Amino acid sequence: MQLYTRSTGTGVPVVLLHAFPLSSAMWLAQREGLAGGCRVITPDLRGFGGSLLGDDEPSIDLMADDVARVLDAQSIDQAVIGGLSMGGYVTMAFARRHPDRMLGLVLADTKAAPDPEPVKDKREDIARRVLEDGTAVLVREVLPALTGRTTRQSRPMVHGRVRGLVQAAPTAAVAWAQRAMAARQDSFETLAALKVPLLVVVGEEDEISPVADAEAMAQAAPGARLEVIQRAGHLTAVEQPEAFNAVVAAFVRSVPGGAAPTRG
Ligand code: MLT
């Protein structure tokens, strides 16, 4: 599977993996704001945006392998790999499956724990209803918690943009990703075994992956850095892009081997 990818900038390669049920469109402010200091690479995960879904069984591991192929296609040996929420699950799978290809990790608004059974059931329910009735169920049941209360109350344009991205999600990809997320494994051991720096970012108003989840990830990895973004909910990178970009840019500057050679 060759993912459709948008890239900007030059320097240290930084891959950013989007949340569910969005696409690389969510990283607009990162492609603009980080490109001065690094090469920002934002793929559409399979089935979303411009990427095909294919006919493989749902799997976060497969999504991580797709990302490794993005690096291959761009002749990049190692990169900072970052992901927000579902993108974070893929990032942790990438860390497990391709540890030698990472310069550092950014985990934003995500969690290392697998889903409890009721959450798995809910995901299957959403997958079925989306396939039957379209994305209206996502607008009703997923959209409300994607942004924080500050954004919902005082930044309707941002909330509206997220709503548009949710409505545009292809239903087959939504169902596939829900099933892939339900089957994902615990990643705490992966974090404990990390040999590269980890930055954990979380919005103080995140209702989906709250601050406690971020603290647990940061505690699992020796030397991890935790940054809490004020007045942001689950989509920190969209809700408070300047604050998000500042902590990511500082992290990328601090990563050893940042000036990684490219292959070929
Ligand atoms: C996301 O933002 O990617 C989702 O909230 C992840 C999830 O459903 O666990």
Quick structural overview:
With 264 residues, the protein is an alpha/beta fold. Helix content is 46%, strand content 15%.
- The Rg value, from CA coordinates, equals 17 Å
> What's the oligomerization state?
single chain
Order of helices and strands: EEHEHEHEHHHHHHHEHEHH
Low-confidence stretches: 259-264
How far is it from the N-terminal to the C-terminal residue, by CA? Answer: 22 Å
Q: What is the overall shape?
A: globular
Mean pLDDT: 96
Question: Percent range for helical residues?
Answer: 40-55%
Bound ions, cofactors and other small molecules, one mention each: D-malate
The total of beta strands comes to 7
Estimated share of beta-strand residues: 15-25%
Please describe the biggest sheet, giving its number of strands, its sense, and whether it closes into a barrel: 7 strands, mixed
Please work out how many helical segments DSSP would assign: 13
List keywords for this structure.
binds D-malate; 264 residues; 13 helices; 15% strand; seven-stranded mixed sheet; alpha/beta; disordered C terminus
Question: Would you spell out the secondary-structure blueprint of this structure?
Answer:
Blueprint: E1 5-8, E2 12-17, H1 28-33, E3 38-43, H2 60-73, E4 79-84, H3 86-97, E5 102-108, H4 117-133, H5 136-141, H6 143-146, H7 149-154, H8 156-167, H9 171-182, H10 188-192, E6 198-203, H11 211-220, E7 225-229, H12 236-239, H13 241-254
Parallel strand pairs: 2-3, 2-4, 4-5, 5-6, 6-7
Antiparallel strand pairs: 1-3
This protein binds D-malate (MLT).
